[in-house]
């Protein structure tokens, strides 16, 4: 039972960590259409902004000036939280691999291996909380930006939606949290 739980938690943690990494690297955190005809489709991410022409499928991307340039707070905070979550999730995966019962590392010390699994669960939960805060922070800021336009009656045919990268970050963070709960609470 313990080995099956460890392997299940490892698989979930691996998939969720990949989701977090993909969310951090991709550029579709906020989606908006520039006009009511939806001639173009714009995705804004943490690193660049891309516009896709819906008629011919041509996609052009603009990199942000510099990583050290002044950026909106939502981008800086989300970048920081997501990169930290990625690093913590990667560290937790490495620790978890060494703590798995099916790995021969420290086979004669099962107590140490169990502590490594618990430690991986704690690190994974810290990373998942940071990733969830980063994803939700960005999503709330997108919602507030849209609400400000609506409240000031500035409707230019532009609508804002959460992009798939934002949803992927939330799913990856939630999966990491579930894996950490499996490792810390259910592993005896």
From TrEMBL:
Signal sequence, renumbered to the chain: 1-28
Q: Its membrane topology, per UniProt?
A: Multi-pass membrane protein
Q: Which GO terms describe its cellular component?
A: bicellular tight junction; plasma membrane
According to the lineage, what is the superkingdom? Answer: Eukaryota
User: TM spans, by residue?
Assistant: 118-140, 162-187
- GO MF term list: structural molecule activity
Q: Which InterPro entries match?
A: Claudin (IPR006187), Claudin16 (IPR003927), Claudin_CS (IPR017974), PMP22/EMP/MP20/Claudin (IPR004031)
Q: What does this protein do?
A: Claudins function as major constituents of the tight junction complexes that regulate the permeability of epithelia.
Family to which this protein belongs: Belongs to the claudin family.
> By what name is this protein known?
Claudin
Q: Which organism is it from?
A: Cnemophilus loriae (Loria's bird-of-paradise)
Q: Which gene encodes it?
A: Cldn16_1
